[in-house]
Amino acid sequence: MRIAALSLCLSVLVAPSAFAGLTQDDMTRVISRLDLERMRSEAHARCVTDVPAAIEWLRDPIIDQYCLLRHGATRKTGLFLGVRLSVELEHDGKTAQAAIVDQLLDVQEASNEGR
Length: 115
Prior knowledge:
Blueprint: H1 2-13, H2 22-33, H3 40-50, H4 61-72, H5 75-91, H6 95-111
Protein name: UrcA family protein
Keywords: Signal
Signal peptide: 1-20
């Protein structure tokens, strides 16, 4: 799978500490710039539709932010920051959150293949 390969490359080529925390800062800036806060309920519903297990994680600020970003930003931005976020979470030992982000990435990538 392309997302998994990209995650592996990022984790090997770039020391995780080089961008630890930066992905969340980037997500916050994108959410603010695009005024995505108003889309929270739509974003949550879409995340739960795409990955039902996400419902248990929507109160987690990281998953909440990623759902907003993935729903309102461009596909390219959502995939790029999602891969970085997954690597960062894995590095920080937050494997459950990383797994949810990976599942959301897989759905987003699969739904747009061929475009």
